[in-house]
Design a protein that fits this description.
Length: about 775
């Protein structure tokens, strides 16, 4: 392989590597704008920190709520210290209580209608106590009765309800003087002065009850007791007795029993009750919440808390407030603030868009929850046990349905230096949670606005930087064409930043490269000009030597030495001719570019020019066959006919050199798709184009010829090897560019060969 071929191959490999590098597709472009947007995404960390901060503040608020609640319980307990008259002497100070015997009077929310029905008794089935054979007072072998009893207090009355199961109800006869020979209710209690009273409820028929007071003196006829009012209602299971008694007549002790008989005019054979009503010593206690304590407690209901007062047996003495509304003072402040802010379009946007978005993360505190402690007669809990032992304590607990978190604080009540009760104050965390949500709402809104503005600022900033960098890149690409030539200047930026410095550096580098490129472009012509004179001197000298040699040979006395010198002179002449040809080829493209800049375009018939050239090629290459095809009679084209001829000459020469069947096909046509243009096709059958040549076939100094060019006869002349610099198709591309056209080459098959396609716009002069 010749030195020229090695150089050409190296150039091909270098250009191929550069083009592959430039064309290598990027799977993912992570540009400056994307990086800044990613950086701006860290703004989302701000709401997380804010969220954590609010959660920490909620912990401190809960601690503050706990301390406040303990203080409220202490203040209320202090107001009850050493006030013995506020507690039931018997009921509250018992060392222990017996279920069923020691009664508890529930606080009723409204007056009960005396109709014998328990539908106006809240939670009767759960609050009523069941009396059966375990509570027998009098019994034979066949006990046929049991009942449920509930005691409640409303205003100045004590209400009692008895739901009796009795297979056979026996009323008092119409003519019977006895009130005991039938089914009846016995009721006994003592007043505040320890006076003992016995009553019998004995009816002749269902309806309004007939109550009688018994005397402790034997033989005294029972007297009607009009202060005891109620109703006797017969049921399928037995009967109900509903009655009320003035609280002023009742002390701390009470007992009741249901007596049953199955035969008329006979005494009852069985009885079930809380205690024996006939004996004062056997009476149980009844705890009726103190009106004084209730008045004190009701005065504390404005603390937005639920308050309970219990005795040492965990029985509720008084209560105030509902746990569902015991949110604390914070909730009221938040609600009032929301009322003030309930104005304008911002409120509508906040309510309809932002809040639903926020509450996908947040939870609203529920006001609808179930707590079994409410309305209970006994309160349980470690904090209550601790308070009754003299140690104040608070406790957090969940409601039974787990919808609300309750804070309870218990504080002991001292009577005679002993703990006789406790005050329990309860609140939900709804107020704190509402305050937390309000804080998070404002925090999220503020952070959202900051993030939107920050992201927008980042985006605009990134877009500005990206635009400046893209502009700089475009200027650099426009300044250097695909062949590496500097065809323009870069304008330096005046910005006083890094991108401005980079722009000025690029402009300086491009300008310096432009000067160097201009120097290289003119080097061939300068070199050619400088070398032609010494080459002409050498050539003239060689011609003179040749003439002298010929003169010597013509004389008779020429020596053998003169004959030997002639081959060296011939070789020197051949070298000079070759060198001259190289200089001519080197300067051809540069001269062509300079000529194109000064060439004037004219209108001419392109078909006539092409057909004329083909006629000349037939004379030059007599052994080759040229086939020409054109659908139109004439093609009016605006351009330089001399350079079109040069273009066609280069293409034909290339096709001739690589043709194997000595057939060259030329077609000329007019196509109209988007804009009208002329298409010139030159086709030869022979070797295919290597795939690595597709992208740079029309670059300068590119040649893949392995043999010498054809001689004038169309034969390969291996003896006269002419150096080839690969400028033919490069010159063809320059002429196409001058005419705003395009040239490309591609393979065809069956048979194999190459097609060179020239596309020129069909324009006319103005």
């Amino acid at each position: 392989m010749s030195k020229q071929s090695k150089v050409d191959n190296q150039q091909l490999q270098l250009k191929s590597a550069k083009r592959e590098l430039s064309k290598a597709p990027s799977r993912f472009r992570f540009g400056l704008r994307s990086k800044l947007l990613l950086l701006s995404s860290f703004l989302f960390v701000i709401p997380w920190f804010g969220y954590q901060y609010v959660w920490e503040m909620e912990k401190y608020l809960r601690f503050g709520q706990e301390q406040t609640l303990v203080g409220t319980a202490r203040a209320l307990a202090t107001s009850l210290h050493e006030r013995v008259n506020l507690f039931n002497k018997q009921a509250s100070f018992l060392p222990s209580v017996e279920q069923g015997k020691d009664l508890y009077s529930y606080r009723l929310t409204q007056a009960v209608q005396l109709d014998g029905l328990h539908n106006d008794w809240p939670s009767f089935e759960s609050k009523a106590h069941f009396y059966d054979e375990n509570h027998k007072i009098l019994s034979d072998d066949n006990l046929n009765i049991n009942f449920k009893a509930s005691v409640g207090k409303y205003d100045k009355y004590l209400y009692m309800f008895f739901q009796v199961v009795d297979k056979k109800v026996v009323f008092r006869g119409n003519n019977s003087l006895s009130i005991l020979n039938n089914d009846h209710l016995a009721l006994s209690f003592s007043d505040n002065d320890s006076n003992f009273y016995q009553f019998i409820v004995s009816n002749k028929k269902p309806g309004w009850i007939s109550a009688y007071q018994l005397s402790e003196i034997e033989g005294v006829i029972p007297q009607p007791a009009p202060q005891i009012q109620g109703n006797w209602l017969t049921t399928p299971q037995g009967y109900n007795i509903e009655l009320r008694i003035p609280l002023a007549d009742i002390g701390d002790n009470i007992a009741f029993a249901i007596y049953d008989t199955n035969n008329e005019n006979t005494l009852p054979t069985s009885a079930v009750g809380s205690a024996d009503p006939s004996k004062q010593a056997s009476l149980g206690t009844i705890l009726v919440p103190s009106p004084e304590i209730e008045r004190i407690v009701k005065g504390m209901k404005y603390t937005h808390s639920s308050i309970w007062v219990v005795d040492q047996h965990h029985r509720v003495l008084a209560s105030a407030g509902k746990l569902n509304t015991a949110d604390g003072a914070w909730n009221a402040q938040v609600e009032s603030q929301k009322i003030k802010d309930n104005k304008g379009l911002w409120h509508q946007f906040n309510q309809n868009i932002l809040l639903p978005l926020y509450y996908t993360v947040l939870t609203k505190p529920s006001r609808e929850f179930i707590d079994t402690i409410y309305d209970a007669k006994h309160l349980k809990g470690e904090h209550i046990v601790s308070a009754l032992n003299g140690v104040p304590k608070s406790q957090w607990r969940l409601t039974t349905d787990k919808k609300a978190l309750i804070l309870s604080a218990a504080y002991p009540v001292y009577i005679n230096k002993k703990v006789q009760g406790a005050v329990i104050v309860e609140e939900t965390t709804n107020g704190i949670r509402t305050l937390r949500n309000a804080a998070l709402e404002k925090l999220f809104t503020s952070i959202l606005a900051i993030m939107v503005m920050g992201a927008l600022t980042f985006f605009l900033f990134a877009s500005r930087i990206s635009s400046r960098i893209r502009q700089l890149s475009n200027q650099a690409e426009q300044a250097i064409d695909g062949q590496g030539r500097i065809n323009g200047e870069m304008s330096a930026s005046t910005a006083n930043d890094e991108i401005g410095d980079l722009s000025r550096s690029f402009a300086t580098a491009v300008n310096r490269l432009s000067q160097y490129n201009h120097y290289l472009e003119n080097m061939s012509s300068r070199l050619s000009h400088e070398l032609r004179t010494p080459i002409a001197v050498v050539k003239t000298s060689l011609e003179t030597l040749t003439m002298q040699s010929q003169t010597r040979q013509s004389t008779a006395n020429s020596t053998e030495l003169d004959a030997i010198e002639n081959p060296y002179i011939s070789r020197a002449q051949t070298g000079i001719n070759t060198l001259n040809l190289i200089l001519t080829n080197m300067s051809e493209s540069t001269q062509l570019e300079q000529m194109l800049n000064q060439t004037q375009k004219i209108n001419f018939d392109l078909k006539e020019v092409v057909s004329g050239c083909l006629e000349g090629y037939k004379q030059v290459y007599p052994r080759l066959e040229f086939i020409f095809h054109c659908d139109v009679s004439a093609i009016d084209f605006f351009g330089s006919p001399e350079h079109i001829v040069q273009l066609f000459d280069k293409v034909i020469n290339n096709a001739v050199e690589f043709s194997q069947d000595k057939i060259i096909s030329v077609s000329l046509s007019i196509s109209s798709k988007n804009n009208k243009h002329i298409t010139l096709l030159v086709k030869n059958n022979g070797a295919l184009l290597p795939s690595e040549l597709n992208d740079y076939l029309f670059d300068s100094m590119i040649s893949m010829r392995k043999v010498s060019s054809l001689n004038i006869e169309g034969h390969a002349n291996s003896k006269s090897k002419v150096p080839h610099l690969g400028l033919g198709l490069y010159i063809a591309r320059l002429i196409c560019s001058f005419h705003q056209g395009n040239i490309q080459a591609y393979n065809h098959f069956d048979p194999e060969g190459v097609i060179i396609e020239i596309t020129l716009p069909l324009v006319k002069s103005n």
